[in-house]
Structure prediction request, 453 residues.
Amino acid sequence: MFEKILIANRGEIAVRIIRACREMGIKTVAVFSEPDREALHAQLADEAICIGSAKPADSYNNMANIITAAVETKAEAIHPGFGFLSENSTFAAMCEECHIKFIGPKPGVIDLMGNKSNARTMMIQANVPVIPGSDGVVKDIDEAYNAAEALGYPVMVKASAGGGGKGIRIVRKKEELAGAFEAAKSETKAAFGDDTMYMEKLIENARHIEVQILGDEHGNVIHLGERDCSLQRKNQKVLEESPSPVITEEIRKEMCAAAVRAAKAAGYQSAGTIEFLYDRSGKFYFMEMNTRVQVEHPVTEMVTNVDIIKEQIRIAAGEKLELRQEDIELRGHAIECRINAENPKRNFAPCPGLIDYLMLPSGGLGVRVDTAVYEGYEITPFYDSMIAKVIVHGKDRAEAIAKMRRALYEFIISGIDTNIEFQNRILHDKDYLKGEFDTSFLERRLADWKKEM
Prediction:
């Protein structure tokens, strides 16, 4: 097992990893940018090193500075968390070259699964259902027109190297295709340095269901059940739960078996997620694989009692999975609400500022808060607006919803605006309560809710 791990991230995920390491007896090194000098992760770690200025390119995405920090502190491994360099194969390869263990999959696997069109081809070979789409990449607008005609409108133009909702455009008629294609190419080029595109048939009114998997270096792969991540705004998840309220036991077995096949086909070693679309007819289709720990991993931890971060570290250390598939049982129901420093009344504009009062809803059975903020902490404008995750667990979905309502009622924060009331509206919506929602649910609701906010 590692003696020291450097965490190449910030915020709540850095704190989450530091806590797991402390429980495992592993020393930690935090890296921080100049504005994060007083950040909680920098205070909790055994060592902390400044790696640059506020701009991510100069700090949290600065590979050379992070590697240098690891070498200077004699860290044996680097945990990238999510975002930043977590799915960067170049960084993973640099770690290997410097004899530092990257806590994640091999660089080649990151490249393979990060390229959505290549991943799609692999899934077809592994007998995993995929969304009808183009035969490989779409090189130019003429090929895009041909692919769209073959698939039938509406279609989705998607970036091969995309992620986080970037490089995606929905096209409902031929006249919209050229503009959408060029816009998606430009967006993904700016975000990922790669403007390779492909196309898929648009599956409307679908659910976004993902399966958590763990794979070790000895060929063992297991799943930890599914999460329903359908509640999204602009392709960004807002609220997640496990298990999905619409997945039957039969479909669960089929979907999770497909996820395991997908991970084995990729030679996957670490914690990862296979994402599916689930349509109203009961069919599911592979979308993509995330080769990192997910923001929403706590809901899976709550229903399986498996610490995914610790498992990730053990796998990276070369240990065999002690868990077997028959050990995994989904118990009860868990929900996660992402709490962001943003103003829903101003089109969810980010709201940096000083937190002058804070009361977290951390009391009571089955309530967990993952956060890195504290009273007197100043939220900067330089990074993601998520400041906390509230996660609850109940014996069933109704109890979990009741606990989340109570927890949000007790979440008091002043000095900044947040989306807490917006989350409350979701939890009181009659269709949400019945489990009747899909990926377009929030966009349909927002117009009405904004009039009342």
